[in-house]
Amino acid sequence: MEKRKPVSDRKVFVAGHRGMVGSAIVRRLEILGYEHIVTRTRSELDLLDQRAVFDFMQSEKPDEIYLAAAKVGGILANNTYPAEFIYENIVVEANTIHAAHLSGVQRLLFLGSSCIYPRDAQQPMQEEALITGVLEPTNEPYAIAKIAGIKLCESYNRQYGRDYRSVMPTNLYGPGDNFHPENSHVVPALLRRFHEAVQEKAPEVLIWGSGTPMREFMHVDDMAAASVHVMDLEEDVHRQYTRPMLSHINVGTGQDCTIRELAETIARVTGYGGRLVFDATKPDGTPRKLLDVSRLKSLGWQAGIGLEEGLNYTYAWFLKHKEDLKVC
C-alpha cells in the first residue's frame, strides 16, 4: 500500500489552475495547508505538446496530480467546434496521464463530466450507466473524450498498478466561470444576460429552449472539496467502492431543477423583474441530468452549498470582476 507524505510535504500539480475548477482546487488545497502546489499557464506548459509535458513531469516529479485542464463550453460551443473539443481533450488527457506514469506519479485525479452518460440513461444516473446507450448528440465528441480519460486511468491502473481515480461532476458554476455571451454554460450565460437586462431595463429576457429540461447544479467550491476528499481516500477504501473497470465516482448535489426554475432563481438573485420568454425552437439537450451520488455519500462526503446561496456568491464575484470580464 502506498505511503503518502504529510500534506505540507506533498508536491501537487494542478493542471488547469486558471480554470474555474482548477482554481477552486488550488483554493481548497491552500486552505488545507498544502505548501507545494505546482501550476503552469498554457504559455508556460502547453499540455497539447507531448514532449513538453514529459519534460515537465521529469523535472518537477509531482507526488500527485489533479487533472482539471480541459476545453469546455455550452451547447453552442460544442456544436460549433466538435473537432477541437474531441481532439484537444483527448490529447491533454493522454499526454498528462502517460507522462505521469512514466515519471512515477502514483496518484492522480481525473475530472470528467456527467455528459459521459447516455442521453436516455435512467435517472438518477448511476456510475454503471457508462457505455450502455447513445450519447447526447450535441456534446458527443466532448463526452467521448471524457470517457477516454476514465478508460486511460483504468488502463494504467490495471496494467501498471497505478492509483489513478476519476470523478464525474454535475453542472458546475461559481467564481472563475466563463461569462462569454455565446460560449458559456447556462448559469453564467443567464447571470450575465439577466445582469444586462437589469442595467438596460429590458422588459423581457429570452432564454434558449423550452425551460422544461431538468438539470443539477453544483457550486465549484463543493466540487473542489469533493475532489480532494476522493483523492485523499485510502486506497483500500476507494477500491471497496469501485471496480477495476468502473472506477469513476459521481459528484453532485443529488437535487435538480428545471431550467425555468433556474432562470427564476437567477432573476431573484440579480433583481430582475421583467418577463421570461423561452424560445422552444432552440435545442434543449438532454431532457434530464441528475447524478446518483450514493457512492460518494457512502465515502463520507456530500454537498453543502445550496443553489440560491451559491448563485448569490457567484453573482457577487461577477459584479466584482465584471470589468476584467469586459462586461458592461
What is the CATH third-level topology name of the domain at 7-176 and 216-254 and 287-305? Answer: Rossmann fold
Main-sheet strand order equals 2-1-3-4-5-10
Helix tally?
A: 11
- Strand tally: 13
C-alpha termini separation: 54 Å
**CATH architecture assignment name of the domain at 7-176 and 216-254 and 287-305:** 3-Layer(aba) Sandwich
Roughly how much helix do the residues carry, as a percent range? 40-55%
Shape category:
globular
Strand content: 15-25%
EC number: 1.1.1.271
Protein name: GDP-L-fucose synthase
Pathway: Nucleotide-sugar biosynthesis; GDP-L-fucose biosynthesis via de novo pathway; GDP-L-fucose from GDP-alpha-D-mannose: step 2/2
GO molecular function: GDP-L-fucose synthase activity; isomerase activity; NADP+ binding
Q: Could you walk me through the main structural features you see in this protein, from its secondary elements to its overall organization?
A:
Belongs to the NAD(P)-dependent epimerase/dehydratase family. Fucose synthase subfamily. It is a single chain. This protein has 328 residues and is an alpha/beta fold. The protein has a domain at 7-176 and 216-254 and 287-305: NAD(P)-binding Rossmann-like Domain (Rossmann fold, 3-Layer(aba) Sandwich), CATH 3.40.50. It has 11 helices and 13 strands. It is globular, with a radius of gyration of 20 Å. 45% of the residues are buried.
